[in-house]
């Protein structure tokens, strides 16, 4: 896919009125490799299984407290060959990074190295129990300790909480630590300041912790309005939550000044680390006055997104917040033995705010992320940030002559380039451009986020794309944008070539059908 | 660097196109104080695949693998056999390297899997609707409490003493910050749980009562009276299940009147993984509560050509639209673990899940009978599925577990580990038995336990 | 008598009860309505405070109480058929009825001509 279309092939067929290829219909509804697949519940059978187990002995004594199941569950089964085929066919209706360029802004869809998968599956990591005696899981505790060490060093922060299960869970961890720190000194505060361009999780998290959320305005150049922020600061402000680099793809150059001002009124600085990929190995957030920052291991450190999870969201903490870190955490004693600090370790646990999850966090993600870090090293991670930023700026410059780039004059972008929908013809919108890109074989960029730009298109190429792949994307992106500017009506019906055409999302929401009936 | 496709020639050409002399010109907005003169100090440089593999394998080798010794740990994480095809499917790049299905036209694979997953979970739990998964059982438990407070507009939750203590801990931690009141309790070491005592704690201000089924000690009881008592006071019943395989053998929580059923799905497809990533399951019995649910939901619809298709729906509940008014701040779910669960459940089917459950129970009964014969040991439970509580005749269970590990047996989870410092619980040991346990394993545990008890003061 | 607010709600006053809905202009801006969250009967709501939420696929918008009063009735048809807000916003798609705590508050609202001019000025 790195080379442009060198075969010279071009589709000769014209589209018919309904936008379909002129070709005979098939009996099955399949089109060669594009295969329709029924639901499991339409092909599975109640009496079929793909696992060989001993037959049930109805005479066997049970001790189920008189609650043996009498009603059928309503499940169906498939044999192994049918199962493999069913899910393989479904997989082919998905777009993934393995298949092509996936410039989904703010999501950092980079290549997932397969060594990480292999290491996570070592039985020494995959087949150990979270409550096993600690003497039997020293290697697992050491993985957590080593990964925590990398995260602290990369961010220039003194402490890390490893248990949060995802980015939003990490945000919650940081905000709860902030609340606990204020409570500990009898300083109840009510307000968290969040820029308008923030991820929706920021205000949702602050509201969860019973804070009132107030917006901070942005300057016309796409950064936090420092004067407005300073004017709002006071003894009621618990924290500011700032994404850096921000969701407009810009580095908050006044971050240090903001942090100093927030600290001066007794508040804390939460940094949303969703965009850490732009600066990993290059800038340490600790040098900018951050008190807490979550790190999405599934973004910067390439644990796979898996169709929406699992993620992992460790949080680095400043000296001021470290004592409030959630349990459990891993420590190493003088003899080199690793151990867990839990609820019982009253002295060592400090004034922790509590527990966020049953066990120790996303171990399977830790092994993958540590493998990724060891592979890249300090030099490789620096190169990651530089190449990610280089690729994004290259796309920004390649598009800005035909596509509205509201902050192109604000200096270089970081790891993502932001565009808006100005001057599209024929009532066409950002959504139509996104769907047009699907037909060109690309996963669309993030659309309609951040909210501060009309019809936003946020393009994040990451560092794992070649120049040829980016050049080819730019060619396709420009072609689709030119169609939008020209008001090409056909774009309104795109995609034409995906497994499905546009969906009736209104119908789905008006009459929700959330489980198979039958 | 094997993962970075740009060459120095590419970089120079791209910088020239951009109009920058060096890549550092792209970082001009970083303040002086935060600029570094080279790679961050204190970390190694990049390493070959072989070298990294060596490092990781050395760490893995320091752990005692569950599958290599007689193994009896449970307490919220169970070791089951995962069919080989599950891992093959979840490693397909189209699933592994996909994102949340925000562009449904090119994400029907993930979406149809989620629809199948939601259906399987709803049926297993005896509920109308399940969501597309949450982080794990403990966070799902808190989300259920939070949802109950939204539905009832009350701020008090009553926790059964036999709820997993880490789940209770998570709920209490969160409630502290939301201003909800949590009435919790310690488990009573009795053959039957004290449901009357639990019912007596439900009052007019109670949003929900949270009960684990089977409970932390492995006991199984009919929760219908708790449901009726809760409903009589206008409260909801939240049932927590940490072992989905059990529901192949026993009544579903929905059948007993649970309003919200949550649990851990790790048993199917996911594996032990030292505690994560796991799979939070969340379902509601009454479809009218759907709009108060947290997390993502996948729904059926049609495309512009009338073909059946699936899409994330009811998104207005979620943080990216509602922001500070969202039902939860959750963004990520546990998608790939949900896929693993669904593939494993598909391989099992109704027949396989029932057989698997029966086999777990058969082996657990065998183990309970054998272990009861160890001098000084008693089985506490009247009822259990695949996990039960042993009383060790006044011996400290925590030390016994450590001693057993030294003898090469992972013999269970001591209540001392789960409830540190609670004297009344120090002498109890949780033992879990699954289809992966052999009769030889059981015999070995019995013998080592006998020896250990003799030698432990 | 029908009044309008600058939040695009209409209020019909009949005796001491007011019926509230959103305007034709508002439904056009919101797009296809998929759900309406209505207040509870008996709730006391102050002028300008959240009274209902109207949802399209990708947005949720608050509907504010145009005046202070107690909710006496909500439109049961919207639960089954939220599309009524699109097809009949100023009639069958009404949201709720409420008492009028302070008739003076009505004076601050627009009449039909005033609202027409207001919309044209947007």
Automatic annotation (TrEMBL), chain A:
**Highest taxon of source:** Bacteria
Q: Does the keyword field hold Transmembrane?
A: no
> What reaction does this enzyme carry out catalytically?
N(6)-[(R)-lipoyl]-L-lysyl-[glycine-cleavage complex H protein] + glycine + H(+) = N(6)-[(R)-S(8)-aminomethyldihydrolipoyl]-L-lysyl-[glycine-cleavage complex H protein] + CO2
Cite the source lineage. Bacteria, Pseudomonadati, Pseudomonadota, Alphaproteobacteria, Sphingomonadales
What's the protein here called?
Answer: glycine dehydrogenase (aminomethyl-transferring)
Name the SUPFAM superfamilies for this protein: PLP-dependent transferases
Alphabetically list the UniProt keywords.
Answer: Aminotransferase, Oxidoreductase, Pyridoxal phosphate, Transferase
> Could you give one GO CC term from the UniProt record?
glycine cleavage complex
Q: Which Gene3D superfamilies match?
A: 6.20.440.10, Aspartate Aminotransferase, domain 1, Type I PLP-dependent aspartate aminotransferase-like (Major domain)
Name the GO terms of the biological process aspect: glycine decarboxylation via glycine cleavage system
GO MF terms held by the record: glycine binding; glycine dehydrogenase (decarboxylating) activity; pyridoxal phosphate binding; transaminase activity
Top EC class of this enzyme: oxidoreductase
TrEMBL record, chain B:
Class of this enzyme? oxidoreductase
Q: Give the UniProt keywords, A-Z.
A: Oxidoreductase
InterPro entries linked: GcvPA (IPR023010), GDC-P_N (IPR049315), GDC_P (IPR020581), PyrdxlP-dep_Trfase (IPR015424), PyrdxlP-dep_Trfase_major (IPR015421), PyrdxlP-dep_Trfase_small (IPR015422)
Give start and end of each Glycine cleavage system P-protein N-terminal domain. 1-448
Superkingdom of this protein's organism: Bacteria
Entry EC no(s)? 1.4.4.2
Give the record's GO biological process terms.
Answer: glycine decarboxylation via glycine cleavage system; nucleoside metabolic process
**What GO molecular function terms would the record report?**
glycine dehydrogenase (decarboxylating) activity
Has keyword Oxidoreductase? yes
What does the record give as the reaction this protein catalyses? N(6)-[(R)-lipoyl]-L-lysyl-[glycine-cleavage complex H protein] + glycine + H(+) = N(6)-[(R)-S(8)-aminomethyldihydrolipoyl]-L-lysyl-[glycine-cleavage complex H protein] + CO2
**CDD domains named among the record's database cross-references:** GDC-P
A Pfam family assignment: GDC-P
What do we know about how this protein assembles, alone or with others?
The glycine cleavage system is composed of four proteins: P, T, L and H. In this organism, the P 'protein' is a heterodimer of two subunits.
- What function does the entry list? The glycine cleavage system catalyzes the degradation of glycine. The P protein binds the alpha-amino group of glycine through its pyridoxal phosphate cofactor; CO(2) is released and the remaining methylamine moiety is then transferred to the lipoamide cofactor of the H protein.
Query: Which family, according to the similarity comment?
Result: Belongs to the GcvP family. N-terminal subunit subfamily.
What is this protein's record name?
Probable glycine dehydrogenase (decarboxylating) subunit 1
Question: What are the top taxonomic ranks of the organism?
Answer: Bacteria, Pseudomonadati, Pseudomonadota, Alphaproteobacteria, Sphingomonadales
Name of the gene: gcvPA
From TrEMBL, chain C:
Q: Pfam families recorded for this chain?
A: GCV_H (PF01597)
- The record places domain Lipoyl-binding at 17-99
What InterPro entries does this protein map onto?
Answer: 2-oxoA_DH_lipoyl-BS, Biotin_lipoyl, GCV_H, GCV_H/Fam206, GCV_H_sub, Single_hybrid_motif
- Sequence positions bearing N6-lipoyllysine: 58
**GO terms for biological process, alphabetical:** glycine decarboxylation via glycine cleavage system; protein lipoylation
Q: Where is it found, in Gene Ontology cellular component terms?
A: cytosol; glycine cleavage complex
Record-linked PROSITE patterns: BIOTINYL_LIPOYL, LIPOYL
The keyword Transcription regulation is assigned to this record: no
The protein's required cofactor(s) are namely: (R)-lipoate
Q: Which domain of life is it from?
A: Bacteria
Keywords in alphabetical order: Lipoyl
Cofactor binding annotation = Binds 1 lipoyl cofactor covalently.
SUPFAM superfamilies registered for this protein in UniProt: Single hybrid motif (SSF51230)
Its family remark reads: Belongs to the GcvH family.
Protein's job? The glycine cleavage system catalyzes the degradation of glycine. The H protein shuttles the methylamine group of glycine from the P protein to the T protein.
Q: What's the subunit arrangement here?
A: The glycine cleavage system is composed of four proteins: P, T, L and H.
Database matches in NCBIfam families = gcvH, PRK01202.1
Protein name according to UniProt: Glycine cleavage system H protein
Name the species this protein comes from.
Erythrobacter ramosus
């Amino acid at each position: 896919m790195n080379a442009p279309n060198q075969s010279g092939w071009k589709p000769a067929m014209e589209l018919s009125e309904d936008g379909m290829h002129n070709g005979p219909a098939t009996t099955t509804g399949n089109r060669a490799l594009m295969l329709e697949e029924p639901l499991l519940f339409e092909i599975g059978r109640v009496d079929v299984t793909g696992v060989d187990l001993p037959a049930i002995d109805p005479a066997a004594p049970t001790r189920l407290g008189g609650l043996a199941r009498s009603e059928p569950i309503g499940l169906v089964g498939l044999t192994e060959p049918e199962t493999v085929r069913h899910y393989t066919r479904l997989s082919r209706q998905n777009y993934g990074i393995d298949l092509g360029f996936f410039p989904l802004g703010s999501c950092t869809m980079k290549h997932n190295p397969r060594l990480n998968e292999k290491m996570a599956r070592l039985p020494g990591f995959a087949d150990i129990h979270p409550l096993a005696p600690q003497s039997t899981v020293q290697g697992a505790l050491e993985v957590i300790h080593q990964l925590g060490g990398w995260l602290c060093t990369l961010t220039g922060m003194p402490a890390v909480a490893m248990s949060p299960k995802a980015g939003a869970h990490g945000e919650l961890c940081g905000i709860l630590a902030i609340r606990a720190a204020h409570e500990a000194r009898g300083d109840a505060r009510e307000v968290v300041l969040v820029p308008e361009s923030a991820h929706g999780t920021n205000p949702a998290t602050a509201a969860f912790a019973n804070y009132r959320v107030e917006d901070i305005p942005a300057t016309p150049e796409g950064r936090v309005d420092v004067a407005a922020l300073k004017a709002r600061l006071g003894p009621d402000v618990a924290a500011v939550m700032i994404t850096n680099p921000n969701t407009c793809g810009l580095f908050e150059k006044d971050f240090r000044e903001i942090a100093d001002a927030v600290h001066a009124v007794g508040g804390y600085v939460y940094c949303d680390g969703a965009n850490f990929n732009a600066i990993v190995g290059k800038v340490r957030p600790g040098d900018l006055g951050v008190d807490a920052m979550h790190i999405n291991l599934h973004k910067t450190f390439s644990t796979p997104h898996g169709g929406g999870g699992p993620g992992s969201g460790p949080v680095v903490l400043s000296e001021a917040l470290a004592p409030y870190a959630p349990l459990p955490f891993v420590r190493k004693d003088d003899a080199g033995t690793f151990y867990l600090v839990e609820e019982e370790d009253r002295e060592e646990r400090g004034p922790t705010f509590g527990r966020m999850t049953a066990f120790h966090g996303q171990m399977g993600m830790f092994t993958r992320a540590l493998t990724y870090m060891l592979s890249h090293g300090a030099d490789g991670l620096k190169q990651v940030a530089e190449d990610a930023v280089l690729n994004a700026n290259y796309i920004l410059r390649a598009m800005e002559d035909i596509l509205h780039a509201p902050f192109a004059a604000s200096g270089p972008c970081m790891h993502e380039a932001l565009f808006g929908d100005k001057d599209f013809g024929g009532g066409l919108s950002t959504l139509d451009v996104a769907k047009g890109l699907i037909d060109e074989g690309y996963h669309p960029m993030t659309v309609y986020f951040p909210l501060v730009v009309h019809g936003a298109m946020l393009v994040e190429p990451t560092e794992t794309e070649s120049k040829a792949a980016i050049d080819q994307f730019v060619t396709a992106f420009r072609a689709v944008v030119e169609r939008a500017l020209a008001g090409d009506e056909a774009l309104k019906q795109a995609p034409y070539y995906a497994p499905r055409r546009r969906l009736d999302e209104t119908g789905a929401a008006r009459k929700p059908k959330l489980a198979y009936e039958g | 660097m094997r993962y970075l496709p740009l060459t120095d020639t590419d970089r120079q050409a791209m910088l020239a196109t951009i109009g920058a002399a060096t890549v550092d010109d792209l970082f001009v907005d970083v303040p002086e104080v935060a600029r570094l003169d080279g790679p961050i100090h204190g970390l190694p440089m990049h390493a070959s695949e072989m070298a990294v593999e060596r490092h990781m394998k050395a760490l893995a080798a320091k752990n005692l693998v569950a599958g290599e010794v007689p193994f009896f740990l449970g307490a919220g994480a169970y070791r089951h056999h995962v069919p080989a095809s599950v891992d093959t499917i979840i490693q397909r790049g189209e699933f592994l390297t996909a994102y949340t299905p925000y562009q449904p036209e090119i994400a029907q694979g993930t979406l149809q899997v989620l629809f199948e997953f939601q259906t399987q979970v709803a049926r297993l739990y005896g509920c109308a609707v399940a969501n597309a998964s949450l982080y794990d059982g403990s966070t799902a438990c808190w989300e259920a409490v939070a949802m109950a407070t939204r539905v009832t507009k009350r701020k008090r939750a009553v926790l059964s003493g036999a709820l997993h203590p880490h789940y209770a801990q998570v709920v209490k931690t969160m409630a502290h910050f939301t201003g909800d009141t949590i009435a919790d309790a310690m488990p009573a070491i009795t053959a039957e749980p004290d449901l009357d005592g639990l019912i007596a704690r439900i009052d007019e201000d109670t949003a929900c009562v949270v009960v684990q089924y089977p409970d932390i000690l492995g006991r199984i009881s009919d929760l219908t009276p708790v449901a009726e008592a809760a409903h009589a006071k206008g409260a909801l019943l939240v049932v927590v299940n940490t072992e989905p395989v059990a529901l192949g053998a026993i009544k579903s929580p929905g059948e007993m009147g649970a309003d919200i059923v949550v649990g851990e799905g790790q048993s199917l497809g996911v594996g032990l993984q030292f505690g994560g990533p796991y799979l939070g399951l969340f379902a509601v019995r009454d479809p009218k509560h759907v709009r108060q649910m947290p997390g993502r939901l996948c729904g059926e619809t049609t495309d512009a050509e009338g073909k059946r298709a699936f899409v994330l729906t009811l998104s207005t509940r979620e943080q990216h639209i509602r922001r500070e008014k969202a039902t939860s701040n959750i963004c990520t779910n546990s998608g790939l673990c949900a896929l693993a669960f669904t593939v494993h459940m598909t391989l099992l089917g109704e027949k396989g899940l029932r057989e698997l459950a029966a086999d777990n129970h058969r082996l657990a009964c065998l183990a309970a009978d054998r272990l009861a014969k160890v001098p000084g040991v008693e089985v506490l439970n009247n009822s259990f599925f695949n996990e039960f509580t042993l009383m060790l005749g006044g011996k400290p269970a925590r030390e016994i577990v450590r001693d057993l590990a030294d003898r090469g047996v992972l013999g269970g989870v001591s209540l001392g580990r789960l409830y540190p410092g609670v004297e009344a619980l120090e002498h109890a040991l949780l033992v879990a038995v699954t289809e992966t346990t052999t009769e030889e394993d059981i015999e070995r545990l019995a013998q080592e336990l006998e020896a250990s008890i003799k030698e432990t003061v | 008598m029908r009044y309008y607010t600058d939040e695009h709600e209409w209020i019909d006053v009949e005796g001491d009860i007011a019926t509230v809905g959103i305007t034709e202009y508002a439904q056009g801006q919101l797009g296809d309505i998929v759900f309406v969250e209505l207040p509870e009967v008996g709730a006391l709501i102050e002028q300008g405070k959240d009274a209902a939420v109207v949802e399209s696929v990708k947005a949720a918008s608050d509907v504010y109480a145009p005046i202070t009063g107690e909710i006496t009735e909500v439109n049961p048809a919207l639960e089954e058929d939220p599309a009524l807000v699109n097809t009949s916003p100023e009639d069958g798609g009404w949201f709720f009825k409420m008492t009028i705590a302070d008739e003076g508050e009505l004076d601050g609202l627009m009449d039909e001509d005033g609202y027409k001019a207001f919309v044209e000025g947007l």
